[in-house]
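Holo prediction — S-adenosyl-L-homocysteine.
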Amino acid sequence: MTLLKDTLKHQGLRNQLVKSLVVKGITDKKVLDAMALIPRHLFMDSSFENFAYQDKAFPIGANQTISQPYTVAFQTEQLKVKAHDTILEIGTGSGYQTSVLVALKAKVYTVERQLELYKKVTLFLPKLGYLPKAIRFGDGYLGLPEFAPFDGIIVTAGAPFVPKELLSQLKIGGRLVIPVGIDTQVMTLIIRTGNKDFEKHELGDFKFVPMLKKKN
Ligand code: SAH
């Protein structure tokens, strides 16, 4: 079994990373504290440990990446998570974003479509001690109707369009944070203001791996 080792050196690098996120405009103290807490290096292959506290995305296998810390901070801030909120994450990947949400005391439901990553993260998160309510192998385009409605939904892959299923699984007042686009994505915040009413905000350009259809 691999040893999950966090050290003062890692904590120091993490504090520096968090400071750089403040410089880039992240202000939510709870989000910053959560990111200062989660040992990001443990979500990556140990040979790449030195890259863990740079503000960059990084390969995690199956052609996927762990999101850039700034992107994680930005999306999480937009969700406005309160303790005990139910949050749906599309694209579990390494489980890093999941852990940040768990550290914010959210009840997290997360979906991953790559079997290899799903299996890995299902073993890893319990060892680390950041436990979502459920990790599912499946197609994020469908959301998780059995656990809906959600206070917040976060999509961590670039979606070609906003899936209707995700809109319908938001509570009134709930927030969907989704990068929309093919080559580059516009970070889009959608707030459900009524049964059939949604408010849309565009929050700038980002770059994500694509949100793909479920493999059969
Ligand atoms: N939140 C992750 C980011 C991983 S990158 C982290 O913190 O590490 C995006 C993830 O979305 C990838 O793991 C990819 O396999 C997954 N993904 C892509 N399309 C998907 C879909 N339709 N349903 C669920 N997950 C999907």
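READOUT: Residues 8-23 form the longest helix (16 residues).
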